[in-house]
Design a protein that fits this description.
The structure is a homodimer of 315-residue chains. The C terminus of chain A is likely disordered. The longest helix of chain A is centred in the C-terminal third of the chain and has 20 residues. Chain A has a single domain, classed as Peroxisomal Thiolase, Chain A, domain 1 (3-Layer(aba) Sandwich), CATH 3.40.47. Chain A starts with a strand and ends in an 8-residue tail after the last strand. By secondary structure, the first copy, chain A, is α/β, with parallel strands linked by helices. In chain A, helix 6 links the parallel strand 11 and strand 12. The first copy, chain A, is built from eight helices and 14 strands. A six-stranded mixed beta sheet of chain A has the order 4-3-9-7-5-6, sandwiched between helices. In chain A, strands 1-2-10 form a three-stranded antiparallel beta sheet, covered by helices on one side. A three-stranded parallel beta sheet of chain A has the order 12-11-14. At the A-B interface, strand 6 and helix 3 of A face strand 6 and helix 3 of B.
């Protein structure tokens, strides 16, 4: 058991990093959703002046980095590391989006969990004394994800009721060793938890067991109870996965329902927007965290947030 | 500048992690190459009893983890984290290979640099006090990589003279906070360095500028000269990339030629085996490091090794 470990999977920081600034840029559909006022910029269309969706996603990454550095009043040469990834093969959105940055780079693939993974490792790099300033970021894009994981958009395929809508957007957080807050105090790292869900149109069900397992472990490791937090937040289980997660936790004696939400449920207006089971993709939790959640924390409306390191499931 | 930083991109560890054990399992071609006696196991054929190459690659990961834990006399529940990735879309080799481990997992995508990336981050987790035992590992598989990145094997496509042969293999290192050595003393993290090489059959040329840049930075940051090291090792530049790297460094006033080698050049017998410009893939540097290099270090034949964090280029 290392010095900073408590329980099985949780580390407590001795010099917790601050989240100095965040930035988020989203697509048009997200720009009409429930959190539309929380984002820094809404792009005019899915191509944003580029000639492919993949290039547009790289531009989301590039511009979101520029925005978070501007908001944090920092320049590229002051950043020790970027930790980033996306859903595309070979993480091309991050690689092409960041290739001119001249900043040491760690590429991550956590699928929908990439934002939490980057925040986890980024925090450890700062608390461990390896960095003073780290940018943690991810992206996803509805059109590039559909092309890669599902059907050509041109087919106009019918979507299953359980399917989720990959968020077009990029979110970034600038972590700092400066003691300004808000702080990342602890990290509970998840494990791969595959219950054998093979329905590619029901990712919420596939991801929920790992979510529930990590949340249970977090409370067991820390000895905290759910009411310690103002908000317990999963990445993108969507409506179906959220309900499964709540049920699984209740079966294990933990009731989080009155302070639990899911970024995939929050980002769209599920009554008016045709998104079926909710938002998904690593841009979902990244933009909800960098937009709505961070802003509410800075206003003092949210004091303690458990932002969940969700499992690996693509988009 | 954080407390452990020296120079621009290098961190020096205060409590350097030991490499407690390594393991490597390779394919049949690698098992006939120049380093054939250094691997733990050579699989009988590319499918290894599975019904797809991708499943065979997952089995490589699964069995290499079992082997490194056995050699380190440790069980799954004693491992704080696994850091792993591979070349396949959504890193499925690592995900399916490790899903029964019940160990907290960080997924990485560094393409050919993934082994050095996992060793870098794994070392930081131990030196930073977040872990006592970490497994760092990667895999690649010739057939699964060809299917994903190039042509169906059944076509029997002619290979370009500059093309490299993706290594079938998985390599793992068990890092520990125990003070047994050999130690990982420092990490110089690379940056994305894209000189615009667009020839998918000449990855050595694409990767060499980033390799040269990181090596230059390492010596500038540390103030060391190349003769400090018994071996300076890049991942998989191959014959062509190795020569470009040497030339680029000489143009910048650094001569490493008499102590420099490349895992992609070392792993095959380039005279007798039909592999064109050399080996590649993240399994290449992983198995050469876990096999030959670690064994030579344990024998005392290699005392100081610079194992280079190569740039992102797939397989």
């Amino acid at each position: 058991m290392s010095e900073k470990h408590i329980g099985k999977q949780t580390v407590l920081f001795k010099n917790p990093p601050s989240i100095k600034a965040t930035a988020s840029i989203v697509g048009t559909k997200e720009g009409k959703g429930s959190l539309k006022h929380s984002f820094d910029y809404i792009i005019p269309d899915e191509l944003w002046g580029e000639d492919s969706w993949e290039k547009a996603e790289s531009k989301l990454v590039r511009e979101t980095l520029a925005k978070v550095l501007q908001k944090g009043s920092m320049s590229n040469d002051q950043i020790d590391y970027i930790l980033a990834g996306d859903l595309l093969n070979q993480c091309i959105a991050a690689n092409y989006g960041l290739r001119e940055t001249d900043i040491p780079f760690f590429g991550l693939f956590g699928a929908c969990s990439t934002m939490a993974e980057s925040l986890s490792l980024g925090s450890m790099l700062i608390d461990g004394g390896f960095a003073d300033s780290v940018v943690c970021m991810t992206s996803s894009h509805f059109c590039s994800a559909e092309r890669q994981f599902r059907y050509p958009l041109e087919l106009g395929s019918q979507r299953a009721p359980t399917s989720q809508w990959t968020v077009t957007g990029s979110g970034a957080a600038l972590l700092s060793s400066e003691q300004t807050g808000p702080y990342i105090k602890a990290v509970t790292t998840g494990k791969i938890n595959d219950m054998g869900i093979a329905d590619a149109n029901n990712m919420g069900a596939a991801m929920a067991p790992a979510a529930a397992d990590t949340i249970l472990t977090h409370f067991a490791d820390t000895g905290l109870s759910p009411d310690y937090y103002d908000l317990i937040l999963t990445g993108d289980l969507g409506k179906i996965g959220k309900k499964i997660c709540i049920d699984l936790l209740k079966m294990n004696g933990l009731d989080i329902e009155n302070r639990y939400n899911d970024c995939g449920v929050m980002i769209f207006n599920t009554q008016e927007q045709d998104i079926h089971a909710g938002g998904s993709g690593c841009g979902c939790s990244a933009t909800v965290f960098a937009g709505h959640v961070y802003k509410e924390m800075m206003k003092g409306n949210l004091k303690r947030v458990l932002f969940y390191l969700s499992p690996q499931e693509p988009s």
